[in-house]
Amino acid sequence: MTGVPSIPSTPTNHERLLRLSAVRNRVPYSRATIYRLVASLQFPRPVSLGGRAIAWKESDIDAWIQARIDGSAATGAR
């Protein structure tokens, strides 16, 4: 044994995907505003699930929310 931890062959952290309704529950924006922000590259892009279905990676939404919080704290906004 070399003391190097082994890497599991299957990931243990599964990425959750959020549909639009779940994203809207987490951010204070309408459907139209979310899509406008996506188009202007100010909001995470969704991933295609096939056909016409899309979803957002939960980690992307969490990071976007945290960036808003961090930006707000840096400017002293409440």
What does this structure look like?
This protein has 78 residues and is α+β, with helices and mostly antiparallel strands. It has one domain (17-75). The chain is 44% helix and 14% strand. A 3-stranded antiparallel sheet has the order 1-3-2. The mean pLDDT is 88.
Provide keyphrases for this structure.
78 residues; three-stranded antiparallel beta sheet
Q: What does the overall shape look like? A: flat
Radius of gyration: 17 Å
- By DSSP (H or I, 4+ residues per run), the number of helices equals 3
Low-pLDDT stretches are none
N-C termini distance: 53 Å
Classify the helix fraction into a percent range: 40-55%
Oligomer: single chain
Compute the number of structural domains: 1
Mean pLDDT: 88
Succession of helices and strands:
EHHEEH
> Strands across the major sheet, in which order?
1-3-2
Briefly note the structural class of the backbone: alpha+beta
- Biggest sheet, open or closed, and with what strands and sense? 3 strands, antiparallel
Counting DSSP E segments of at least 2 residues, the number of strands comes to 3
How much strand? 5-15%
List the helices and strands and how they pair.
Blueprint: E1 17-18, H1 20-26, H2 31-39, E2 47-50, E3 53-57, H3 58-75
Antiparallel strand pairs: 1-3, 2-3
